[in-house]
C-alpha cells in the first residue's frame, strides 16, 4: 500500500506485510512493538498500519538507502 503525502510516496505496511519483509520478526512481536510504542504506527479500524521507514528504524536503528529513496 502506498500513500502520497507532502514529501512523496510512503509505503505503509500491515503487520502481516511487515513480518514477511523482515525475516525472523513475527506478527506477534510486531503487534507487541506497536502496542508498547517501540514501533510508531497508526490504526485504521482494528488494523495496525506501519510506515516502512519507521519499521526499519525501530528494528535496525537505520533506514537502508534503497528504502530511503523509495
Give start-end ranges of low-pLDDT stretches.
Answer: none
Q: Enumerate how many helices there are, as a single number.
A: 4
Number of strands: 4
Number of self-contained structural domains: 1
Report the sheet with the most strands, covering strand number, pairing sense and barrel closure. 4 strands, antiparallel
Structural overview:
The chain is an alpha+beta fold and 70 residues long. The protein has one domain. The protein is built from 4 helices and 4 strands, in the order E-E-H-H-E-E-H-H.
Which features would summarize this protein structure in a list?
single chain, 70 residues, alpha+beta, 4-stranded antiparallel β-sheet, globular
List the helices and strands and how they pair.
Blueprint: E1 2-5, E2 8-14, H1 15-21, H2 27-36, E3 42-44, E4 47-51, H3 52-60, H4 65-68
Antiparallel strand pairs: 1-2, 2-4, 3-4
Offer a concise description of the structure.
The protein has helices spanning 15-21, 27-36, 52-60, 65-68; strands at 2-5, 8-14, 42-44, 47-51.
Amino acid at each position: 500500500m502506498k500513500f502520497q503525502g507532502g514529501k512523496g510516496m510512503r509505503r505503509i505496511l500491515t503487520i502481516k506485510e511487515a513480518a514477511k519483509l523482515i525475516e525472523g520478526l513475527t506478527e506477534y512481536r510486531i503487534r507487541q512493538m506497536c502496542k508498547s510504542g517501540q514501533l510508531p504506527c497508526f490504526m485504521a479500524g482494528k488494523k495496525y498500519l506501519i510506515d516502512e521507514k519507521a519499521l526499519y528504524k525501530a528494528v535496525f536503528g537505520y533506514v537502508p538507502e534503497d528504502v530511503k529513496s523509495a
